[in-house]
Amino acid sequence: MSAPRSVSRVLGLGLLLCDLLACAPTIRTPLKQALPSVTGDNTVAPGPCLGEPARIDLGGPAVSGALADLDGDGVKDLALAVAGPGGGAAVFFLHDGQGGLKQSMRVPIPQTPTAIAAGDFNNDGLDDLVIGADDPPALHVLLARGRGEFIAGATPLHSTPAALWVARLDGNDTADLLALDEGGKAVRALLGDGHGELTEGKRSGLPTAAQPAALTLVDADRDQILDLAVLGDSRRDAAITLVRGDGRGNFSQVLQRRVVGSGARALLGAPLAGDDGHDLVALVDGAGPGAGSPVAAVLVNNGPVEYSAVGYFVPGPLGDATLADLDLDGDLDLVAAAADGGAVHVVPGDGRGGFGPAQSRRAAGLGASVVVLDGARPTVLSFGPGSQQLHAFAVTRCSS
Ligand SMILES: [Ca+2]
Ligand SMILES: [Ca+2]
Ligand SMILES: [Ca+2]
Ligand SMILES: [Ca+2]
After folding, report:
1. How do beta strands 87-95 and 186-192 pair?
2. Are 168 and 174 in contact (CB under 8 A)?
3. How do 112-119 and 48-50 pair as beta strands?
4. Furthest-apart CA pair in the chain: how many Å?
5. Ligand nearest to the CA of 128
6. pLDDT tens digit sequence for 265-306
7. Any bridge partners for residue 306, and if so which?
8. CB-hemisphere CA count at 13 Å for 356?
9. What is the mean predicted confidence (pLDDT) over 199-203?
10. Residue 384 in contact with residue 367, Cβ under 8 Å?
């Protein structure tokens, strides 16, 4: 069922360098923590703080972002899928590894983009990009040629992807894609051949409809095959449902369903507790129906489909979140965007699945998505469909 490449053209992209955006840190007294952690190690201090953001106009809302080394210098950069009238664009921002970010290319997409992801789909060591698009459903593939040049092609799809994840799904050594159907009721694998071609597989229905931020890939049963973890709402519960992958790109048998609170927001997978276990962090609006404060439920994986859970209060309802080591102490920290676009919160991790007190950087007009550019000075980037700007935050030491 291999869909043919319908477009193949060389974009021949020289880098158009625009003005340099220095992410100069502004060190300020951190805001008082809104809520204490219920449990965990509150001696994790001082945590990382964020400076005032630099703002970059995008000319439209960014629907999705991906980290990739776009210019081949070994440092991850940012590619945003930006919607606009009559189509959209992939907009590239180059990172110097020290917190400096500059806009380079704007690659037009003749359709409305819905999702973007990065991976090496032709096994040449260079990061490539895939961009999901609507009307009609399609996948645009940008294969890197080095020095910031890409070859663009496109493949029709059966359904518009609401989100894309790059992973090895079918047991061989090539990068594959997982696409979440628009509406969140099913996923499809797009299996890579290692030469840049991706073939759409069968539809796997999900037991609970998933928002893009509330689905992640983990090996929950530790059989070396990735499974799905989906955070969803049913009746009054927010629950994580684990669905087994069969190693051919299909997902069916439910392994476990675990209630983690009420009001599903986002689900993250990461080795939080320092081993190779696939731990999970679920962000929900409350510990239970009608139960007040938003919670980060940490599920530490102890063995095949075995999790121990602990909950932490977080400062306000959250949009998307990510895990990154912001203060370079070797432990992953939680970075979360406020659902209302009014703040980015940083919650320092202790490397054992525990979190310390949150620090918040408030700013107006932020997006609900966050990613972190690693480097000697990590940079937190906020964007989203509700904002026409990219906000870049330098990481600082908290002053107390
Ligand atoms: Ca780079
Ligand atoms: Ca490549
Ligand atoms: Ca598995
Ligand atoms: Ca850390």
Report:
1. unpaired
2. yes
3. unpaired
4. 59
5. 2
6. 999 998 887 777 789 999 999 988 777 789 999 999 999 999
7. 303
8. 17
9. 95
10. yes
Residue type, 351: G
Is the model's pTM score more than 0.85? yes
Q: What is the pLDDT of residue 291?
A: 73
214 pLDDT more than 90 = yes
Query: Closest ligand to 122 CA?
Result: 2
The pLDDT of 300-329, averaged and rounded, is: 92
Token digits for 257?
A: 């369903």
SS3 label, residue 328: coil
Instruction: Name the strand (E) or helix (H) holding 54.
Output: strand 54-57
Cα(291) to ligand 4 centroid in Å equals 30
How many angstroms does the Cα of residue 239 sit away from the middle of ligand 3? 19
- Give pLDDT, residue 186: 98
CA of 243 to the centre of ligand 2 (A): 30
Of the candidates 251, 234, 233, 250, which has an alpha carbon nearest to the alpha carbon of residue 242?
A: 251
The pLDDT assigned to 45 comes to 54
Ligand 3 centre to CA of 180 (Å) is: 19
**DSSP H or E stretch at residue 63:** strand 62-68
